[in-house]
Input
Amino acid sequence: MASRVVIIAAGGTGGHMFPAQALAEEMLAAGWRVILSTDPRGARYTGGFPDAVEIEVVDSATFARGGVLGKLTAPLHLLRGVVRATLKMMSQRPDVVIGFGGYPAFPAMAAAWLTRHPRMLHEQNAVLGRVNRVFAKRVHHVACGIWPTELPKGVEGIHIGNPVRTAVLARDGAQYIPPGDYPMSLLVIGGSQGARVLSDVAPAAISLLPDDMLGHLRVSHQARAEDVEAVEQRYAAAGAQAEVQTFFEDVPARLAEAQLVISRAGASSVADISAIGRPAIFIPLGTALRDEQTANAKGMVEAGAAFSLVERDLTAIDLAKHIHAILSDAKTATAMAEAAKAYGRPEAASTLALLVEDLAEERRPRKE
Output
């Protein structure tokens, strides 16, 4: 019997691509043929996808970048992508098409709707993104990563959590080592957008820590390419041992080793941190139009696993106080790690895979 086919539509940022990768891993393990539909930006995040995933790069565009000309030509790029995706889909005949958001998901989701193939969405954030909002009433299911998720009237969501990659799940049993008078790891991850504030404030905050704590600290800091040299200089001036890179290939391993994580509150970051179970200080992206990152962090904060600091009010002194409060109190840090672990949903990828299989079965044509 021919393998069943799932088209996974995602792109734009790691926040969309990482959960898409997690589902791809599950579907391949179940014997499905997996096709990833993304655009050139999303394709940058496909290095971790299994080799068996077929990657189709589609024409897409965003209305948020590119200036006036880019915004004027965006509809033409999207239309061209939809036409090509529709023609391909008529021959591929997927059993299910699932979108993870981002403009690169638009062509495949529009094609699935036009060709009436079984389709569903996964929304990672507590507030629907633009593309998922367009299709929320045009799909059979909407799976939600954060609960509650703000949904259009009449749309019912299914709370499953945010899928995390196999590389993260492999670390979910890593024991938390509480902070103490020995080498400690601090991980600073900013995501693909808006990382500059972390590059400005985190080194300054760490420079304010007591010398005995600073001497034990080993910092891993993710920064934008144009900021790397300046961030390295700031840590060096503070006397802190720091490794600064634009992207860490081994984030799951660094999360497992960390006594504390300072991060944006992107949905995938929250999911990874909670799956492994580490204390966190979240600094939600202040320019997010729907303030979805504040909503993403809320559950971890309420669970006692994290602090959330408002970007516009962020100062080095305030961040330093929160870092010191956690790293100077092993009992508090351990309790936060345990709360994070309890909050996590490591089963989200397998649950989503079951939803995909159920939808394929529900919509399979019945023989008379």
About this structure: The chain has a mean pLDDT of 93.
